[in-house]
Structures are given as structure tokens and as C-alpha cells.
Design a protein that fits this description.
The chain is mainly α. The chain has ten helices and five strands, in the order H-H-E-E-H-H-H-E-H-H-E-E-H-H-H. It has helices at 20-27, 31-39, 58-72, 77-85, 93-104, 116-123, 129-138, 153-162, 169-198, 203-243; strands at residues 47-48, 54-55, 111-115, 141-145, 148-152. The protein is globular and about 55 Å long. 23% of the residues are buried. Mean pLDDT is 77; it is low at 1-14.
């Protein structure tokens, strides 16, 4: 199976590389599991450093998190291999985090209650009060008590990566409102379309169709949105370049 390139010891983001033990600890799996995935081609090989020690970068972390999410959703190893094989080449850790968030959305409830310490452990970085406020604005975490938070498991990694994006909290809130508004409108129209399609069918057929359509619709929305956003940003940057 073909795998994507993963940043290694000279990762442009300047993030430290991990040993196999550190990678396994970060993902919450055993070293044996990491090596098993690697032998099946699910994980790219590490960058070999001095003393023949393998180093793993952010891409390995993101890909391993995606594999574990797929596994938790009940996919077989063969199905996971097919899913990964269909991913576009050259995906960044950020892209993989988005795919993981999409996969997590298939589950009826991906929230869990975590202490502040556990939240930081899952995030993989220390979190300031401002960081927590930004994650709250994104809808990733919600205060549930003293130093306790309700956390959207599928969005946490993505939210942490977005902490470094230079956007104000006001802009984040406004962006979230735009996304929620248009997502609800799209969900309503798709629901109406499906109702018309299955109006004469048995209730069990409707439930089965809904289960089958959910991941396909979410993936289609993600792909369409990414393409549209890329086109919009490209047009804006081109206009700015001509103006300058």
C-alpha cells in the first residue's frame, strides 16, 4: 500500500520528533500496535536518525489518530486499509486531523468529560487560559465544573492546531456562526431530499439508508467546502497581488 510523505526530523513546523515509545504514548496505543500498523503499510516508515533510531513526526501522530478513530468506529483492518488507500497523496497533519474529525462525526456522541490535566494530556501541549477560551469559542470544549470540561473528542486535535492561527476570538465566534448556519441549511435541504426519496419505503429501509448516507454526505460536504474555500482564497490572494 502506498503511504504519504510525513514530516520527519527536519519538520518545517519545528515540532520535535518522537521515538516509537513516545508516539505510542501520545496515541494511547502500545508500541506493538504501532509496529503492526507499520508492517501493514498503514503508517509510513520513520525517519532513521543517529544510532539507527527511528523518529516520528506530526504526520505519524495524525495518521495514527485517524487509524484509531476508524478502528473505534468498528471498521475492520481491511476496511481501514481501503479508506487510507483512497486518501489523496501528500496530506498534511492538519488535513488528516480534518478527516479524523469527519470520521468522529459518524458516531452519535463523541464527547467526554475530562479534567484540565487530562485535557492537556490529550491535546499534547500545555494550555493557557486564553487557549481554553479559544477552544471554547470553537465549540471544542465546554466548562463542566471546576477544572472539568466536556470535550468533543473528534475536534480536539484540530482545535489545538488552530490555536496557532492568528485569528481573534471574535473572528472565531463569527466563523463558527457562519458554519453552523450554513451547515443547518444544507442538512435541512438534504433531509427534505431524502424524505421525498424514501417516502414510500419501510421504516427499516429509511434507517439503513440514513446510516449509509451519513459518512458519504459528510465526506462530500468536506470535499466541496475545501474546494470552494481554496477557490475563494485563491481569488482573493490574486486580487490582492494585482492591487499591490
Amino acid at each position: 500500500m502506498t503511504t504519504d510523505a510525513v514530516p520527519g526530523a527536519d519538520d518545517a513546523a519545528g515540532q520535535p520528533t518522537l521515538t516509537v515509545d513516545e508516539l505510542a504514548a501520545r496515541a494511547g496505543v502500545t508500541v506493538r500496535t504501532v509496529r503492526f500498523y507499520a508492517t501493514r503499510g498503514l503508517l509510513p516508515p520513520p525517519v532513521i536518525g543517529p544510532r539507527r533510531v527511528g523518529h516520528y513526526g506530526p504526520g505519524h501522530v495524525a495518521r495514527l489518530a485517524l487509524i484509531e478513530e476508524l478502528r473505534q468506529q468498528g471498521m475492520t483492518l481491511a476496511a481501514i486499509e481501503r479508506y487510507l488507500r483512497q486518501l489523496p497523496p501528500g496530506l498534511t497533519p492538519h488535513d488528516l486531523a480534518i478527516h479524523r474529525a469527519v470520521v468522529a462525526s459518524w458516531a452519535p456522541d463523541t464527547e467526554e468529560t475530562l479534567s484540565r490535566r487530562e485535557l492537556e494530556r490529550r491535546a499534547g501541549v500545555p494550555l493557557t487560559e486564553e487557549d481554553v477560551a479559544r477552544l471554547t469559542a470553537m465549540g471544542v470544549v465546554t466548562a463542566a465544573g471546576a477544572d472539568t470540561f466536556r470535550v468533543d473528542r473528534g475536534l480536539l486535535r484540530l482545535g489545538v492546531r488552530l490555536l496557532g492561527v492568528p485569528l481573534s476570538q471574535e473572528a472565531i465566534l463569527a466563523a463558527r456562526e457562519v458554519l453552523v448556519e450554513h451547515s443547518r441549511a444544507a442538512a435541512h435541504e438534504l433531509s427534505q431530499l431524502l424524505r421525498g426519496e424514501v417516502a414510500e419505503r419501510d421504516a427499516r429501509d429509511v434507517k439503513s439508508l440514513s446510516a449509509d448516507m451519513h459518512p458519504l454526505v459528510v465526506q462530500a460536504l468536506l470535499t466541496t467546502f475545501q474546494r470552494s474555500l481554496r477557490e475563494e482564497l485563491g481569488a482573493w490572494l490574486s486580487k490582492e497581488s494585482r492591487a499591490g
